[in-house]
């Protein structure tokens, strides 16, 4: 996993290095050089606040042998860790009430279906009884794909027909989950951002149904974000955070993208818990993350 993490973030750290090329070796960090460093950090998707703090830390530092790449990457890693540490929170499964209901939202293509399978697998490994609800009833493919995953990892799934009523399925899920002693119910939802009003209405309906069954539900509303979309991932947080009541984030596709810095920008700007990161398409490729390690992997 360690290798996967560092391998996954390599393009991100390489890009950071490329953006900073030309700045190494400078003896005097004058305002113009500091500006250039700050620009390079922003261009690496780390977000303006983190870039500004790194600039402030560098100001006043003396580099008698010239600005050293190692020293700079060390400072970058330390500052990134400070941003990530408060948001890196594994998903908590409460002892009561059961089943704990987790709604998973995100735009189509973000990796939502795969993430649900990975999350279910992760929880299974922790000995939780998990059940899925195929609530993305607008896409026959999404229903089919989730069923394939459920089969593969061996978890029960509640699904209906394409175009069916998602809230009805959720109702059925909670009912059966309670009867069968399920600990965690993971609910897929539609991700058609082009019909935002419809999407939000549907989420509201699911919430109403859940609330009637259990006032604490949904316990979590997880937003799945595709890191490869860079700054676009940030605007999705903006769109969903209020309207959908997002409680936490999962960022996917952090393997092999040069835009991994967006994880830092998201943490910095929104301070929302990041429960896990996706580093591949396999069922084992979702893990809670260690902020120190991820900071090192990004800084390179
Ligand atoms: P959905 O439309 O949001 O449900 O997205 P899917 O779960 O179907 O994923 C879309 C594509 O992204 C699929 O080809 C997945 O295999 C891929 N994918 C999902 N998560 C990851 C990840 O963490 N890393 C990589 N490299 N690919 C991923």
From TrEMBL:
Q: Which SUPFAM superfamilies match?
A: Domain of the SRP/SRP receptor G-proteins, P-loop containing nucleoside triphosphate hydrolases
Question: What does the entry list as the binding residues for GTP?
Answer: 106-113, 188-192, 252-255
User: What does the UniProt function comment say about this protein?
Assistant: Involved in targeting and insertion of nascent membrane proteins into the cytoplasmic membrane. Acts as a receptor for the complex formed by the signal recognition particle (SRP) and the ribosome-nascent chain (RNC). Interaction with SRP-RNC leads to the transfer of the RNC complex to the Sec translocase for insertion into the membrane, the hydrolysis of GTP by both Ffh and FtsY, and the dissociation of the SRP-FtsY complex into the individual components.
Please report the name of this protein according to its UniProt entry. Signal recognition particle receptor FtsY
Query: In this protein, which residues make up the domain named SRP54-type proteins GTP-binding?
Result: 99-300
* Any one GO cellular component localisation term in the record: plasma membrane
For this UniProt record, give its keywords in alphabetical order, as a comma-separated list: Cell membrane, Cytoplasm, GTP-binding, Hydrolase, Membrane, Nucleotide-binding, Receptor
Q: Cite the InterPro entries for this sequence.
A: AAA+_ATPase, P-loop_NTPase, Signal_recog_particl_SRP54_hlx, SR_rcpt_FtsY, SRP/SRP_N, SRP54_GTPase_dom, SRP54_N_sf
Database matches in PANTHER family: SIGNAL RECOGNITION PARTICLE RECEPTOR SUBUNIT ALPHA (PTHR43134:SF1)
One Gene Ontology MF term? GTP binding
Q: What organism does the record attribute this protein to?
A: Rhizorhabdus histidinilytica
GO BP field: SRP-dependent cotranslational protein targeting to membrane
Keyword check for Glycoprotein: no
């Amino acid at each position: 996993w360690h290798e996967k993490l560092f391998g996954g973030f390599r393009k991100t750290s390489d890009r950071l290095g490329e953006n900073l090329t030309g700045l190494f070796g400078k003896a005097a960090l004058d305002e113009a050089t500091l500006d250039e460093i700050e620009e390079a950090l922003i261009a690496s998707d780390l977000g303006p606040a983190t870039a500004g703090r790194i600039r402030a830390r560098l100001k006043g530092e003396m580099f008698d042998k010239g600005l050293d790449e190692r020293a700079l990457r060390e400072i970058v890693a330390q500052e990134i860790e400070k941003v990530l540490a408060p948001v890196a929170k594994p998903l908590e499964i409460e002892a009561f009430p059961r089943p704990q209901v987790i709604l998973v939202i995100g735009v189509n293509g973000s990796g939502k279906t795969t993430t649900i399978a990975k999350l279910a697998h992760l929880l299974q490994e922790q000995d939780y009884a998990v059940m899925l609800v195929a609530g993305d009833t607008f896409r026959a493919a999404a229903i089919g794909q989730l069923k394939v995953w459920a089969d593969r990892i061996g978890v029960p799934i509640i699904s209906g027909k394409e175009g069916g009523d998602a809230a009805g399925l959720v109702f059925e899920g909670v009912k059966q989950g309670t009867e069968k002693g399920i600990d965690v119910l993971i609910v897929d939802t539609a991700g058609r951002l082009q019909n935002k009003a419809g999407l939000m209405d549907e989420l509201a309906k699911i919430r109403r149904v859940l609330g009637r069954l259990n006032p604490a539900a949904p316990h979590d509303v997880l937003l799945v974000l595709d890191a490869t979309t860079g700054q676009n991932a940030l605007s999705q947080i903006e769109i969903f955070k209020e309207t959908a009541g997002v409680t936490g984030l999962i960022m996917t596709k952090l393997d092999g993208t040069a835009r991994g810095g967006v994880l830092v920008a998201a943490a910095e700007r929104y301070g929302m818990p990041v429960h896990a990161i996706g580093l591949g398409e396999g069922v084992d490729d979702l893990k809670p993350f260690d902020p120190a390690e991820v900071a090192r992997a990004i800084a390179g």
